[in-house]
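Why N-acetyltransferase domain-containing protein? Reviewers of the renewal asked for a concrete example.
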Amino acid sequence: GELDSIVTRPEARRQGHATRLLMLALDALRSAGCDWSLLVATDEGRRLYERHGWRCYPEPWRRGTVTGALPRSDGRYAVRSYDPRREPDVWERIAAVDMAFNHRRPLTVVRDAAYWRHFAALRISDWIDNEGLVIYATFRGEAAPRLCGYAFAEFYPPGFQVRDMGVLPQEPDATVALLNAVAAEAGRRGIPLSARIYLPREPQIDAALDSLFGPTLYAGEDRGHLMARAVGAGFTDRQLDAIFAAPSAHISAIDLF
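Here is what the prediction returned.
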């Protein structure tokens, strides 16, 4: 179960209200049969959660800079921007790719078409309108109707970031086509070709990033905001640690409150 923020008015702080709310939330999580709980803490709130058993976990990322020509893309793939608010059945198509790519991935929500239409669509539409998010989609040729993969990218004055991606397992080379398209758009906009990448560890993604960034590629992590706690009877901290430590584990910003 995921917790949203627990907030008290400034004049009501240090009176136990936040602790009481947190205990009520824990009771609700246990009643719902949750094994563990996830939240994103502010610097101010982190101490409250730590006192009640939540622990910090890393948020991995990779960074790199394109210093040469873009890697050669597979000519079988056509990539274009993809606005789900203006094209039919887009959420259903994205859901199908996402399900194929992520349905067994530790830490990733299993997102069906209804989840994309009714929850993710609201958040992603806000990112498109207010943060300049661009969704890229790749197909087998311009006329082919089948979506092979997608990537969510944002462009800023210091560089660009890729915050989510999915490709059909039988189309691993679509990864290179998508990353090339994002880097090419950054170049077209005249911004530095420096990137921050929030993608899971997968052979095709790792190879594509190595090819794109070469020796500039390095990995790191943010720590201090993502927190989790074992909740269910019989579910241990060791089991929770194993979920986060799984090689392909990935948390997407799409799913965080």
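The CA atoms of residues 62 and 219 lie 4 Å apart. This is the kind of structural detail the renewal will allow us to pursue systematically.
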